[in-house]
Amino acid sequence: MTVNLPNLGPSAGTPSQWTDTINPVLEGLIVGETPAVVTQDMQLAASQTLEAFTPVGFDDSGNLVAALTGSADPADDIKAIGITLYKIVVPAATNPGVPILRSGCLAKHMLAWPASFDTDAEKFNAFAGAPTPTNIVVREVYFGSTVAAP
User: Fold this and answer.
1) What is the tally of structural domains in the chain?
2) What predicted TM-score, i.e. pTM, was given to this entire model?
3) Which of 10, 37, 84, 144 has an alpha carbon within 20 to 30 A of 26's alpha carbon?
């Protein structure tokens, strides 16, 4: 959570008021208290654009790229280990470290699923068997007797 503090140095000693500006997590992303939310700074692969809340996994070089499932050879799948927290544009020849959400209870409809995750079964099982410390639970969100819109 970001709190933007005002610069009060030039007006020291002068009575005044100020307010906090808090940038909260997008409402509806976190839908449970267990498992606890955990982020970890990790490196991304160069030359890619990832939308906010995209499931990511390791490529052959150990850098993060969008997760992939259902390829012709299961060895080519990229197992989801976390999600991005904001839109990221990675220029060529750079491997920036960014915070990746590794643990939490998340709403299925809020994630920016790569095209290969085209069934609910693939989405609910996207993080099953991921290496520690990944502990992401994907849940359907119900409003009364209806399911959240995708």
Assistant:
1) 1
2) 0.77
3) 144
